[in-house]
TrEMBL record:
It comes from Vulpes vulpes (Red fox). It comes from the Eukaryota. The gene is VMP1. This is Vacuole membrane protein 1 isoform X3. Keywords: Membrane, Transmembrane, Transmembrane helix. The chain crosses the membrane at residues 48-66, 86-109, 222-238, 244-265, 277-298, 342-359.
Amino acid sequence: MNEKKRRDREERQNIVLWRQPLITLQYFSLEILVILKDWTSKLWHRQSIVVSFLLLLAVLTATYYVEGAHQQYVQRIEKQFLLYAYWIGLGILSSVGLGTGLHTFLLYLGPHIASVTLAAYECNSVNFPEPPYPDQIICPDEDGIEGTISLWSIISKVRIEACMWGIGTAIGELPPYFMARAARLSGAEPDDEEYQEFEEMLEHAETAQDFASRAKLAVQNLVQKVGFFGILACASIPNPLFDLAGITCGHFLVPFWTFFGATLIGKAIIKMHIQKIFVIITFSKHIVEQMVAFIGAVPGIGPSLQKPFQEYLEAQRQKLHHRREMGTQQGENWLSWMFEKLVVVMVCYFILSIINSMAQSYAKRMQQRLNSEEKTK
């Protein structure tokens, strides 16, 4: 049985766009149809919820479009809602486990905190005009006082974005928990390879020798024995094995609010402040100047590497002071060009990984159907 599972897994892993593009796209389309069918069936059996949602949507739509004194509040709520939804959505994408996961901290939140940090030290203020902030950062008209910017003022400026992103990452950790909990309560074998690996790990816990297996067992033991504070410790540090904590909590029927509360506090408050402080210190004015000077000191290639960094920082200063049109026309800096292309490549790879993952899920459905038919013969 284990040999057959191994062969089936290897066969599924070969269903990727760069090896079998037509089959992968076909299975991806069929998996979407299966998911749509399942959701349609679930919604059909919850007609009262659907009707209530549609009525609420109609009321909100009428409120949004009807003219009146309430429009100023509607616009304010809309702005805040879109801001919160944007960062929560990025947080969910970072941890929900679709495909490879999109590293939205490195691509979106980290650069945003870095931009605010650089702007704060250049403008000597964090009171950026709104609008255009947060879409664009420019210095306020009144000049700030040199040396008034503190670490705490920058932390406070980016707190909402960072906390919303952290809340999103906490929400993204819920699927492994619910999957493992449902499997334990129903006694059925779940359609998830991570959970199957978790059960195999429990079976061979005493004989585990390699570092990866021992690390997974350490996380599992910490969460199982310490409970809330064990989950909090795992969630408060960058931890690629946190999915295992969710599976462990679900498998051992840890109460939902114990798991989600510890995860939320750890990711949205503790871990988020650690990451914020690291980025802010790294991009503070004197550290950036020291890094640029260090690059220029590299023998031979230093000056040629230093020049684009200096040009990029100078272009950012001109943007902050809204003086770009007063100077010479700035060409596109290769650093910003490279970062934009990196974002495009990572997003494209994320989409490709989702397509491959969904195609492999459909292949697994087919294999399970064939195995069940063989058993009934």
